[in-house]
Amino acid sequence: MRNLARWVIEGSASDQLVTSELSRLYASAADWSSTASGLLACVVSRTPLTAIFWFRAEETETVNWAGNPHKPVEPGALPGQLTPRRSFELWAETVRGRSRPWRPNEQEAARRVSASLAEIGRQKALAGSTAS
After folding, report:
1. φ, ψ dihedrals at 103, nearest 5°
2. Which of 61, 16, 56, 53 shows the shortest CA–CA distance to 36?
3. pLDDT, tens digit, for every residue of 33-74?
4. What is the pTM of this model?
5. What are the structural domain ranges in the chain?
6. Inter-residue contact 44 to 37 (CB < 8 Å)
């Protein structure tokens, strides 16, 4: 988690990172995709390093195509030519490593929690410096 926190802080000037495909942005997260494909991260403080993470589990999805979009054109077929018996064959692709997207209200709630914690930290720091 410390490495992830460093990556979040070093990789962005923003205090919030939102993704539903964490492993696409942070390769090490591929090992956790079943439980942490989505990430909503808020930086509370850069010094000391303090961040809050909310994770979302992977939601596998099956996408049905009218034919395999990755399949090469059949030999002898002209570009754009359909073959009657194969043009409507169903091809299914399983999409992995994605979570349900983060809604704007969830992002705003996370931003508020982070801001509140940052304010508490500032107040404690001020109280500690005036007590000395």
Report:
1. -80, 155
2. 56
3. 899 999 999 999 888 888 999 999 998 776 666 666 666 656
4. 0.71
5. 2-104
6. no
